[in-house]
């Protein structure tokens, strides 16, 4: 007959197990884990982990080239520009400012970016600088309202969204929107391009310094191109209107030739 074990003996046995490394009581009989391990089926070789998905950095310029290159009409280009995800100026702008005048006119004028008035209106060059531009064009019988190709002009900007506070566009903003401007020119197919001020000169000619390069015909995207003072500059520096007048006459002479 089994002798009852007194509590001191039980405590001593428990103590002995704890000292032997037992930490959890999970069954009535001991389990030989070494034996179990030997009998257990070998685990299958773990499948190779999938290659690390590399975070692909977006390339704003490559995306712009791809999106602009896919456009075969001005309407498609305007849609593509509005769907372009990389230019944050869009978030702060009230309106997308694409163009005004007659697409296909012999003269295409390219300015910098919409200002406050253009941002409100949705058309380029409608503020004070734009009104001066209209008077300059009228002086050589050109108009954005004209319906005859002889006197019509087509007007756009390097950037279609207003930079906050009318700040100068950043180099990266110009670079990412340039493929759209180049496609815009190709689709509008003017005979002559006029670049108003330093920003479009920097974008399309790769150089600024409008005081030196104005009035000299050069070439951008394969077309005869005339850099001129920006009308906003002429508002601040009326003395420069003399040179601007000479440049307008130069443009008129080309059109008459
Ligand atoms: N200045 C520009 O360059 N473009 C505009 O549309 C208005 C002001």
Question: What does the model show?
Answer:
With 257 residues, this protein is α/β, with parallel strands linked by helices. The chain has a single domain (61-256), classed as Uracil-DNA glycosylase-like domain (Uracil-DNA Glycosylase, subunit E, 3-Layer(aba) Sandwich). Helix content is 44%, strand content 10%. It is built from twelve helices and six strands. The chain has helices spanning 7-19, 33-39, 60-69, 74-83, 89-92, 116-121, 128-139, 171-188, 198-205, 210-213, 231-236, 241-256, and strands at residues 100-101, 107-111, 153-157, 192-196, 218-220, 223-228. A hairpin with a 2-residue loop joins β5 and β6 (223-228). The radius of gyration is 37 Å and the shape is elongated. Uracil is lined by residues 111-115, 118, 124-125, 127, 129-130, 157, 232. Residues 111-115, 118, 124-125, 127, 129-130, 157, 232 line the site of uracil (URA).
Radius of gyration: 37 Å
Describe the largest sheet: 6 strands, mixed
Tell me which CATH architecture applies here. Answer: 3-Layer(aba) Sandwich
The backbone outline, from C-alpha atoms, is elongated
CATH topology assignment = Uracil-DNA Glycosylase, subunit E
Helix content estimate? 40-55%
Helix count equals 12
Overall tally of structural domains? 1
Sequence stretches where pLDDT stays below 50 over 5 or more residues: none
By CATH reckoning, the class would read Alpha Beta
Strand line-up of the largest beta sheet: 1-3-2-4-6-5
Average of the residue pLDDT scores: 90
Question: What order do the helices and strands come in, and which of them pair?
Answer:
Layout: H1 7-19, H2 33-39, H3 60-69, H4 74-83, H5 89-92, E1 100-101, E2 107-111, H6 116-121, H7 128-139, E3 153-157, H8 171-188, E4 192-196, H9 198-205, H10 210-213, E5 218-220, E6 223-228, H11 231-236, H12 241-256
Parallel strand pairs: 2-3, 2-4, 4-6
Antiparallel strand pairs: 1-3, 5-6
The site of uracil has 13 residues, from helix 7.
């Amino acid at each position: 007959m089994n002798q009852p074990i007194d509590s001191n003996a039980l405590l001593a046995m428990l103590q002995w197990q704890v000292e032997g490394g037992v930490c959890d009581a999970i069954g009535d009989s001991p389990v030989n884990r070494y034996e179990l391990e030997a009998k257990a089926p070998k685990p299958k070789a773990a499948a190779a982990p999938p290659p690390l998905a590399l975070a692909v950095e977006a390339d704003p310029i490559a995306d712009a080239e791809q999106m602009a290159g896919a456009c075969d009409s001005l309407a498609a280009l305007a849609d593509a520009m509005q769907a372009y995800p990389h230019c944050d100026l869009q978030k702060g702008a009230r309106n997308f400012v694409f163009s005004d005048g007659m697409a296909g006119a012999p003269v295409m004028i390219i300015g910098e970016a919409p200002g406050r008035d253009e941002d409100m209106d949705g058309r380029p060059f409608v503020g004070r600088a734009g009104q001066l531009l209209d008077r300059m064009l009228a002086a050589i019988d050109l108009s954005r309202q004209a319906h005859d190709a002889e006197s019509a002009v087509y007007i756009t900007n390097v950037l279609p969204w207003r930079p906050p506070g009318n700040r100068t566009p950043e180099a990266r903003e110009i670079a990412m929107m340039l493929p759209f401007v180049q496609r815009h020119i190709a689709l509008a197919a003017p005979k002559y391009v006029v670049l108003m001020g330093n920003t479009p000169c920097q974008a399309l000619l790769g150089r600024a310094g409008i005081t030196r390069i104005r009035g000299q015909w050069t070439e951008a995207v394969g077309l005869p191109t005339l850099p001129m003072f920006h009308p906003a500059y002429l508002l601040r520096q009326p003395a420069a209107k003399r040179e601007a007048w000479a440049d307008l006459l130069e443009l008129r002479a080309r059109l008459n030739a």
